[in-house]
Design brief:
mainly alpha; globular
Length: 297
C-alpha cells in the first residue's frame, strides 16, 4: 500500500520594498501620524510664514526699544529726585531698585503681539481652509492642537527671555550715565526675566485657545485685548468692592505678586497668583480642545 506524502509549501513572502524593507512591517511601523511628526509639521508651517517672522522681530524690537527708553526715563526721574523733594518722596515711596524693572518695561506690548500670534496660529487655519488638510492628516485633531500649543508657548518664552536680556544689556550703559546700576545676574533680575517670559507664553496659550474657539482672527484678538487691557481699566473705574476685589483675579494682575520681592498690599499672594494664572490658561485650553473635537471643520 503506497503512502502519499505531502510537503507543506511555505507561503510566498511579500516582495521586499526597495532597500530591503518588508512593506507589511513598514506599514505597521509608519501607520498614522505620531505626535513628533505632527510637531515637526507645525514647526515647518510656523517658521515658513513671513507674518510669523515679522511678529517675532517686532516683539524683540519693541522690547529692546522700550527697555532703552525706560532706562532714559528712569535716569531722568532719578536726577529730578536729587533736586525736587516731591520727586524724592515718590522715589522713596516706590522702594526697592528703580532700575530692576527696566528690562521688562515692554512686556505689555510683547503680550499683545505674541498673544495675537497665538490667535492667528489657529484662526488662520479656518479662515484659509488649511484646517481641512490639517485635520485630514491628523483626524484626532488634539495632537495638532497640542503641537501648535507647544510651538507657540516655547517660541514666546524664548523670544521674550532673549529680548528681555538684550533690553537689559542696552539699558546698562544708559543707566550708568545717571549713576544707576543694573545687575542682570542678580536673583531678582533672573526672577523677573523667567516669570515675565512664562507669563507671555501663558498669554500666547490663551490666544491660541481664543483663536480655536472663535475661529476668527479679529474676534480672537479683540477678545484678548478686552481681557488684558480693557477689563483692568474698566474694573478700576467702576466703583464698588466687588470690582476692586475681582480685579486681583484678572490674568494681567498676576505678574506683580509673582515678581515682587515682598508681598504688595491689595494683591494676591504669590502662590494664589500662580494658581489664578494657571486657571486662566487651563480653562480656555480645555474648552477649546472640546469644541475642536465636537465641531465640524
Amino acid at each position: 500500500m503506497s503512502s502519499l506524502t505531502t510537503e507543506s509549501t511555505p507561503s510566498p513572502e511579500p516582495a521586499s520594498a526597495p532597500g530591503g524593507r518588508n512593506p507589511r512591517s513598514g506599514a505597521r511601523s509608519l501607520a498614522g501620524p505620531t505626535f513628533f511628526r505632527v510637531l515637526n509639521s507645525e514647526i515647518i508651517k510656523f517658521r515658513s510664514l513671513l507674518s510669523t517672522l515679522i511678529l517675532l522681530v517686532s516683539t524683540a524690537v519693541v522690547m529692546v526699544g522700550f527697555g532703552a527708553l525706560s532706562a532714559w526715563g528712569t535716569g531722568q526721574f532719578a536726577n529730578a529726585a536729587t533736586r525736587d523733594p516731591q520727586a524724592a518722596a515718590r522715589v522713596a515711596s516706590q522702594g526697592g531698585d528703580l532700575a530692576i524693572s527696566v528690562p521688562t518695561s515692554g512686556i505689555a506690548f510683547a503680550q499683545l503681539i505674541l498673544g495675537s500670534l497665538g490667535v492667528l496660529l489657529m484662526s488662520s487655519e479656518f479662515t484659509t481652509g488649511m484646517a481641512r488638510s490639517t485635520f485630514a492628516a491628523v483626524p484626532k485633531r488634539l495632537p495638532a492642537f497640542a503641537a501648535k500649543l507647544v510651538v507657540v508657548m516655547v517660541t514666546s518664552f524664548v523670544v521674550t527671555a532673549a529680548a528681555t536680556l538684550v533690553a537689559g544689556l542696552a539699558a546698562v550703559p544708559i543707566l550708568d550715565n545717571y549713576g544707576l546700576s543694573l545687575d542682570l545676574g542678580s536673583s531678582q533680575s533672573v526672577k523677573l526675566l523667567l516669570v515675565n517670559s512664562i507669563y507671555v507664553a501663558a498669554v500666547a496659550a490663551i490666544g491660541l485657545a481664543l483663536g480655536t474657539m472663535l475661529r476668527n482672527s479679529a474676534g480672537g484678538i479683540m477678545s484678548l485685548v478686552g481681557i488684558f487691557f480693557v477689563a483692568p481699566i474698566a474694573f478700576q473705574l467702576i466703583p464698588g468692592d466687588f470690582f476692586k476685589e475681582a480685579r486681583k483675579y484678572l490674568p494681567g494682575n498676576t505678574v506683580e505678586p509673582l515678581t515682587a520681592a515682598q508681598h504688595v498690599p491689595d494683591t494676591l499672594e504669590a502662590w494664589q497668583a500662580g494658581l489664578v494664572l494657571g486657571a486662566w490658561v487651563l480653562v480656555p485650553l480645555v474648552l477649546a480642545a472640546i469644541l475642536l473635537k465636537r465641531r465640524d471643520v
